[in-house]
């Protein structure tokens, strides 16, 4: 069954006795050629992508849909800036007006 893209996930991690046993991530999709799930671990510094089969899904929580204010108060991080670059379309000579 397909899962909701961008929902909250928890993946099981093995560690020491007093460490948390699960880590909260965001579901990114399915990796090619591997049985498992691709997850984004936002708690790590930088970008950390995890591929795991042992995952619990909370499809009712969508961290990517929260407002920027909520994101900052929850994670303490500033939002990621995305710059859109538009490429001008080529113009055919018949569409160009001349000043003659």
From TrEMBL:
Top-rank taxon, per record: Eukaryota
Q: Which InterPro entries match?
A: SH3_retrovirus
What segment(s) does the record annotate as region Disordered? 61-100
- Retroviral polymerase SH3-like domain boundaries: 7-68
Q: What is this protein called?
A: Integrase catalytic domain-containing protein
- What species is this protein from? Abeliophyllum distichum
